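Fold it.
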Amino acid sequence: MSHHKLDATNLLCPMPVIRTQDRVAELASGDILEIHCTDPGALHDIPTWCRINGHRVVGTQQANNEIIVTLRVGS
């Protein structure tokens, strides 16, 4: 299991989800991806995408206008 980061700051919907999808496609099952965003819609959009695609959100944080969504890649 590896830990990865994705910078999706200053991107508007749907780009944070598209960048997340592209990055997850490169990762292995069980890997952790930490997505840094500034679009408030990402707090809803990324978890919804995870549920649909079999990944699990393990945490969300908000600080200084930045949103961090952490997910575990499913199989």
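The radius of gyration is 11 Å.
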